[in-house]
Write a structure and sequence with these properties.
Chain lengths: 248, 248
Amino acid sequence: MMTNPHPLRAKVRIVLVETSHPGNIGAAARAMKNMGLDRLYLVQPVDYPNEKAVFRSASASDVLDQVVVCASLQEAISDCSLVLGTSARQRRIPWPLVTPKEAAIKITEHGAGAGDIAIVFGRESKGLKNEELQQCQYHVNIPTSEAYSSLNLAMAVQVLSYELFCASEAATPERVWDQLPATNTDLEHFFGHLETTLAEVGFHDPDNPRQLLTRLRRLFLRIEPDQMEISILRGFLKAVNDATRRQS
Amino acid sequence: MMTNPHPLRAKVRIVLVETSHPGNIGAAARAMKNMGLDRLYLVQPVDYPNEKAVFRSASASDVLDQVVVCASLQEAISDCSLVLGTSARQRRIPWPLVTPKEAAIKITEHGAGAGDIAIVFGRESKGLKNEELQQCQYHVNIPTSEAYSSLNLAMAVQVLSYELFCASEAATPERVWDQLPATNTDLEHFFGHLETTLAEVGFHDPDNPRQLLTRLRRLFLRIEPDQMEISILRGFLKAVNDATRRQS
């Protein structure tokens, strides 16, 4: 099982409903992996598994390896908190309709912390049925020329995945900070000081001293402290040292 | 011959260089027509015409019917005043690099009135060669996951065509300019003249003459000179030639 390193994209699944051509499944898997997605759900595929899917997936056969095949759309999306369905046209009862760009923004706003997200694509020939679209919060319409509005299924997956990739990369704002980050040297001096101090004050697990230090390293490294914060921490340790030495 | 009703998109050609798989040509034609483009140029296609292209084009076989097959990239772009080349990676000498969205904005700013526009795509296996990329004003890089950065060729055409469709549907003011932009042929004549002149005056790095020319190409291509400016530059080179020849 792959682990998607991007917290938001790890939550996104692409759901293909009753796909006829296995080549489209493979091409969709490649499009997904190109755009940092890896969770593909197939609802009652007509002809799958099939070697054409593997061939068209190129270097994304790992996405196919972990495909989830479902008996119903309900099964594929029941644990999702945001579901978007692609639709070529507005339906009789209008639904909130978004462009691929807007869909990608909805997904990034929804965020990684709030349950899984599904983007649902219908049959090559006739898309999603009304009752399937009515299970979605939003309908996504890919803008097209009036002269020929029917995109290939995998192309539609490519466009949505691309927009989501762009939006999710942009959604990681650059850290703006008022102090310079601590350097590795700053951190190692701090860890050395911390270890001495832990020993001086007699705080350590005698059965497993190394794991304590490892856990403290992990903690402080994760914080990505700035130089000011390291100074403050070391000032505190120094105060502890002084106090301890006066005592002994 | 179709007549594209959209004035800007009518000026845009998609150029595929040495495509191996005819299916990709057909899929690219479909992606183009979905996004309101219809001018497809093929530079030395490996296997074309081919029924696989027709099959994958679906209802875009009219785009294939009017394909222009060229013997060289030069032939495919010589009358274009804006040429963008797709590239998966940054090259040794960096070129102005744009995202698909930025490329679409460049094209809409360039406008319908100022000469034809080409978007060039390389071989499935290894993209465009350096000398091909150096004929382009801009390099377009489709953002991708680091885990798998190689898009299928027709998918890349889809993404660029989609962005161009979105940008060209949104009304963007055209660039207003008092001179026509230089064509690719104007520029190549200028570069030829420049190279001769550099040799005549003895200005070149004998250890690395090619990089000097590449850097000069990049500089002048980035400027997007108009025809008057090219005349002035060539007038200057001519004056240098005359002065040099009088001396010798």
